[in-house]
Design a protein that fits this description.
Elements (H helix, E strand, L loop, with lengths): L17 E3 L1 E2 L4 H13 L5 E4 L2 H4 L23 H7 L10 E4 L4 H14 L9 E3 L4 H7 L6 H18 L3 E2 L1 E4 L1 H5 L4 H21 L8 H5 L2 E7 L3 H21 L13 E5 L11 H11 L11 E3 L12 H17 L13 H23 L3 H6 L2 H19 L32 H15 L3 H15 L6 H10 L3 H12 L18 H17 L5 E5 L8 H12 L3 E4 L6 H10 L4 E6 L4 H14 L7 E5 L3 H10 L3 E3 L6 H15 L4
């Protein structure tokens, strides 16, 4: 049989998507070496992970940066760091994605300056700044400024790149974290498109882009989505995204060129769906999730990055990242997927699924627009409350067994895994000396520059921020003057202020009337009576810069359902703020949530603070991605309980919290 003549086969194979690995840690030099190795292995684009201080606009020597430097990404504090990050990598020939949001303008200015130093023509540089601040208020937590000011920065970047970097994607509307925060496919599509409308409205209304060039703006807007393990549903979601994006850009913005209206997206498959229990199961999850965004040619991702099998355990090693890259390469080059047109064209099942998502997403989008748009929906707490409630329902289904997670709530019997036999050696370890080196480096950088030039650049930035002037030129001047990340963000904080997003806990409920929760509620009430207090009081704290608050919020919701009075002040708190709240609110228990890997610095700081405040008796529990050895260290330091992702039953966790309180107060 002549396979090349098989009916339905394309005349030539479709072009593969850009293959990326989300990478960055320790230092710019170490990350540069990792980039070089990944490119040598066949990776076709770079995806830069920045550390939390960089993402939230702090220098490595800031109090909030303690324990966070270089942990979940690369620290970039100034132009010297950006030079080291891309040393020997020709930016004009490398497609670079930067996952950066609140300080996206700053990082793009650093990138562009390095490109010019390399002799690159910026009009040739291709890549993406994520630059989607809305989802940060809802899920990921790396916002800095209020929503309206943040959208102004986004619009300025869009207008700048349209003129200076026409091949650059200035914004990457990110629904990825919405799904992790609880969004259903309908909510993910509806809320993400509401964000896109807000960005395009801001650009249009800024007066910086002529109406006839809105098509040029639209064609550079990309999306970054999540792909879960229900891959048939995910295919329908992506096709629905394309239908609605075409409709919105045609009808709302008058874009007549169908090529400009094409839905362009990249994808990272669902990292938070990976499990610590039986982590080898994550391999098949990743493969199935990859199929959801590659099988349908008409809705195929333009770029794909896959997590590693061990991301629920800690930072992946280069070998783990290589394994994920090889998955993409096998699908693209060994299988026949790229040889055929769309496999689902004419499918009655797929058409019905797409119509269902489109109809539901239109309702969600219209609801947000009726509230006044996505900024109003953030500020009123509507979007956050909707996500917290959806995630609570998802957790309820998993706890009840209605949704099966293999190795977690069913089929938990297992052999010991050779993949994790090395213990802490199964993940990348960040040398604690990295932070000290970064602190020393940023201080030397400040000492070696012309302070008067720095002051003048920052003064111009503040002055321009107080007007409607595009802030990119002033930002580029700051880069060239040697301003640091923290100084740039600090200057804008002075003008725009800082923001604390709604927590979304009001009205959310997750446990219902399940029998287990009823028993725990009785225990909570009995313990409160024995202690002579009206209600047990739990402080949920997020120390440091880790903004992934989904788990903390679900604990808070379930604890409140069980009868606790919950004190939750949101994310990004210093140890001193947590200690002060614990003392002032006279709580019975402090629960700390840390997912960034900074637990060995953040948790002892709170314990020391409680001792200094005379409350060494106050029990502290910790939850997060915490290796077994680190858990032992925390318990030895005085932590009463350590919870990790394998502790999925929220009601059981709340019952444990009651036990901790009783033991701390010598109750039987």
């Amino acid at each position: 049989m002549d396979e090349t003549a098989f009916p339905g086969r394309l005349p030539e194979r479709d072009r593969p998507w850009v293959m990326r690995t989300y990478a960055g840690h320790s230092s710019a030099a170490a990350t540069n070496a990792l980039f070089r190795r990944n490119l040598a292995k066949g990776q076709t684009g770079l995806s830069v992970a920045f550390d939390l201080p960089t993402q939230t606009g702090y220098d490595p020597d800031h109090e909030l940066a303690s324990g966070e430097v270089g942990r979940v990404g690369v620290p970039v504090a100034h132009l010297g760091d950006m030079r080291a990050l891309f040393d020997g990598l020709p930016l004009a020939d490398t497609n670079t994605s930067m996952t950066i949001n609140a300080p996206a303008m700053w990082l793009l200015a650093l990138y562009g300056t390095v490109g010019l130093e390399q002799g690159a023509d910026l009009t040739r540089c291709a890549g993406t700044t994520q630059n989607d601040i809305i989802k940060e208020y809802l899920s990921r937590g790396t916002y800095i400024f209020p929503p309206a000011a943040s959208l102004r920065l986004t619009a300025d970047v869009v207008a700048y790149t349209l003129r200076e970097m026409p091949r650059w994607n200035p914004v990457n509307i990110c629904s990825y974290h919405l799904q992790e925060a609880g969004a259903t496919p309908v909510q993910e599509v509806g809320f993400a498109l509401a964000t896109a409308v807000a960005v395009l409205d801001a650009v249009r209304d800024s007066g910086q882009v002529p109406a006839e060039r809105m098509g040029d703006v639209v064609q550079r807007i990309s999306f970054f989505v999540n792909a879960g393990v229900r891959f048939v549903e995910e295919i329908a979601k992506m096709r629905a995204f394309g239908v609605l994006w075409d409709e919105i850009t045609r009808d709302r913005y008058g874009v007549t060129d169908a090529r400009q209206r094409r839905f362009r997206y990249g994808v990272q498959v669902n990292s938070l769906g990976l499990t610590e229990a039986q982590p080898e199961n994550n391999i098949q999850r990743i493969v199935l999730e990859m199929l959801g965004v590659t099988m349908s040619r008409d809705a195929r991702a333009r770029a794909v990055q896959l997590p590693a099998w061990n991301e629920a355990l800690g930072l992946p090693r280069p070998w783990d990242q290589q394994w994920s890259l090889r998955m993409q390469q096998v699908l693209a080059y060994e299988s026949d997927l790229l040889e055929y047109p769309d496999l689902f064209a004419g499918s009655h099942v797929m058409t019905a699924l797409v119509d269902e998502v489109v109809t539901g997403a239109r309702v969600e989008l219209d609801k947000v627009l009726e509230l006044g748009g996505v900024v109003a929906a953030v500020e009123t707490g509507y979007l956050k409350s909707a996500l917290v409630a959806s995630l609570a329902e998802r957790r309820r289904r998993m706890e009840s067994g209605a949704d099966v997670v293999v190795g977690v709530n069913r089929y938990t019997e297992t052999e010991s895994s050779p993949l994790t036999a090395a213990g802490a050696g199964a993940v990348e370890q960040v040398d604690p000396a990295v932070e000290a080196a970064a602190v020393d480096g940023v201080r030397r950088w400040r000492a070696d520059r012309d302070a008067s030039v720095v002051d003048a650049a920052l003064a111009r930035l503040r002055a321009d921020a107080a007007t409607t002037t595009n802030l990119m030129p002033a930002t580029v001047e700051c880069v060239r003057a040697g301003v640091t990340t923290g100084e740039w963000a600090g200057a804008l904080r002075q003008v725009f202020g800082e923001y604390r997003a709604p927590t979304g806990l009001a009205g959310a409920t997750g446990g219902g009337g399940e029998p287990g929760l009823v028993a725990v509620r009785e225990r909570v009430a009995a313990t409160a009576r024995e202690l002579g207090s009206g209600r047990l009081r739990l402080l949920v704290g997020k120390p440091g810069l880790d903004g992934h608050s989904n788990g903390a919020e679900q604990i808070a919701v379930r604890a409140r359902d069980a009868g606790f009075e919950v004190v939750y002040q949101g994310i990004r708190l210093t140890a001193g703020q947590i200690v002060a709240a614990a003392v002032e609110e006279d709580v019975d228990l402090v629960g700390l949530s840390v997912l960034s890997g900074s637990h060995l610095a953040a948790v002892p700081a709170v314990l020391d603070g409680l001792r200094a405040a005379g409350r060494a008796d106050l029990p502290v529990v910790v939850g997060g991605i915490i290796p077994a050895g680190d858990a032992d260290t925390l318990r030895a330091a005085g932590v009463a309980r350590v919870f990790t992702p394998k502790d999925f039953a929220l009601t059981g966790i709340i019952d444990d919290l009651v036990t901790v309180i009783r033991r701390a107060n010598d109750l039987p």
